[in-house]
Amino acid sequence: MLLAVAVxxxxxxxxxxxxxxxQDLLRRLLPPGTARDGxxxxxxxxxxxxxxxxxxxxxxxxxxxxxxxxxxxxxxTGVSAGVLSAYxxxxxxxxxxxxxxxxxxxxxxxxxxxxxxxxxxxxxDLIFVLGLTRWPRYARVTYAQARALRERExxxxxxxxxxxxxxxxxxxxxxxxxxxxxxIATLEVGLVIIFEAALSFLGLGVQPxxxxxxxxxxxxxxxxxxxxxxxxxxxxxIMLTVLxxxxxxxxxxxxxxxxxxxxxxx
Length: 266
Prior knowledge:
Strand order of the largest sheet: 1-2
Number of helices: 11
Distance between the termini: 26 Å
Structural class: mainly alpha
CATH topology: MetI-like fold
Largest sheet: 2 strands, antiparallel
């Protein structure tokens, strides 16, 4: 499923049967399976006559781009904070971990809404907000792992022979904390897709006319009685994509993290 979504996102100009932003009020709210003047609308059209299938295909680009980039930013920030806090301790530990505690104490969606409201609703700010508000989960797990590794014999042996901090961090500590990080990142993809859809649903995410699954849900809620397909198909796209990401995350956890260390911060 994830592979199909990724292929659809990359090949959207080829796979989409219609222009996702082209409006035609004469063809508004056509039901799924309608064919008119040689053009087929497999999933129907919306209130502005735009093809729903084409918009879902292009919406996959937004969801996957936001998810991958935001997860990358959060992972890089969180792993760096966790490893540095555990290795150096002291002021670095206190400052970074207390900052993580503050962020974790605020409901994520509320924090994201407030930040987006201040910065303004656009694509880059959405990625920035999602990335920099999800890093504490990575920091907590890597902090616990790196703190335990710091006391292991092979690390102490490196310290005894005069190895530098960079060698110890990048050769001995960082490689040993990557397995739970990969598990968290895989599970976070589904969560970030949901959060992006939620913010777009509230009008704080990707702005029209760019297709977004969350925005399509928001548009379709006003037509549930007479145009059920407007909200149903984007909702199914979100559900199936997130389900596939969660199943992949569960498989990655079983394969890479059998002791369940990645769940320590959840």
